[in-house]
TrEMBL record:
<dbReference type="InterPro" id="IPR007330">
    <property type="entry name" value="MIT_dom"/>
</dbReference>
<protein>
    <recommendedName>
        <fullName>MIT domain-containing protein</fullName>
    </recommendedName>
</protein>
<dbReference type="InterPro" id="IPR036181">
    <property type="entry name" value="MIT_dom_sf"/>
</dbReference>
<dbReference type="Pfam" id="PF04212">
    <property type="entry name" value="MIT"/>
</dbReference>
<feature type="domain" description="MIT">
    <location>
        <begin position="15"/>
        <end position="92"/>
    </location>
</feature>
């Protein structure tokens, strides 16, 4: 049986992992985006957004929460732009 301290430690590790995974996905997405690999960039942006969304559930600091939310809006906007490009290219 886990102690309260172990549970808190595990919860913190999970919380940190969501943010770390999101950041890694964003880095990869931007790299693919910059290279013009939109079909690779789009799912990476979407994965990042999922991880950030989960991270936000656990984030207690309102300033950090606002900053992450703002970045998520930027990533979502770019993902939507890429989706439009991909749809347009698939119709040609």
């Amino acid at each position: 049986m886990q102690s309260t301290r172990e549970k808190v430690k595990l919860e913190f590790q999970m919380y940190s992992n969501f943010k770390e995974h999101a950041i890694e996905y964003v880095k990869q997405a931007v790299q693919e985006d910059d290279a013009g690999n939109y079909s690779k960039a789009f799912p990476l942006y979407m994965n990042a957004l999922e991880y950030f969304r989960t991270h936000l559930k656990y984030e207690k600091n309102p300033k950090i929460k606002d900053a992450i939310t703002q970045k998520c809006m930027e990533y979502l906007k770019r993902a939507e732009e890429i989706r439009t490009i991909l749809l347009k290219n698939s119709m040609e």
